[in-house]
Amino acid sequence: MTLRCILGAALLAAACASQAAVIYGSNLVVNGDAEAGTTGWNGYGGYGMIQSVNYGSNWVLPTQPGPADRGHGLFAGTGQYAAAWQTLDFGTATTQATAFSLSGWLGGWADQGDNALFYVQFLDESGMEIGGASLGPVTPEDRDGQTGLWYRASEGLMPTGTHAVSFWLSMERLASTDNDGYADNLSFILQAQEGEVPEPGIAATFALGLGMLGWARQRGKGLRGGR
Q1: CA separation (Å) from 56 to 94, 125, 208?
Q2: 34-84 tens-digit pLDDT
Q3: CA angle in degrees (0–180, nearest 5) for 176-178-179
Q4: What does the longest C-alpha to C-alpha distance in the chain come to?
Q5: Residue among 225, 174, 221 at smallest CA distance from 74
């Protein structure tokens, strides 16, 4: 699955956005590591919701490929297609192109084609997409048939006139009964241009908001019926 089938209707996401001025040098993805369950992520109608699961025998083992700082949780899909989003509204449109880095760990199960895709939309003041960047999918060939997550990253320029950014995470099931598209440690960071200084207090306000996130308890997961 790609997000092209979702993004046509997805532009309404900005209407439900959180708001903060442009912040440099910090990860703008809320709960990109699944340690707070699915806090910060919104479901998308007609699709399964992503879920936060623990590293372990039913998913990716702590010893299998993945981030060194993987914590306890990772994202997996539900149903045949799963999708979730979050939006950050800057409150005003940017006046110049801004460098960004996009990164994350994506993967799947054994030789199955289930996969995950991470996408960022750049939206103008009217909520129209004026640019984007994506990571994934990581295919079974990329993984050499192994279960786990692989690091992916890209860099680029957030276009002038960006009023908000939307982050989309999707998973596609191509085999068996479980949606084994996996993702962890998702990150989007803006880099200040030379001589550009962030507004005082903005980063602190954003950090406070992150600190107030409730750390949702992970739901126990029983043995699955098969793949």
Answers
A1: 43, 43, 32
A2: 999 999 999 999 999 999 999 998 999 999 999 999 999 999 999 999 999
A3: 110
A4: 57
A5: 221
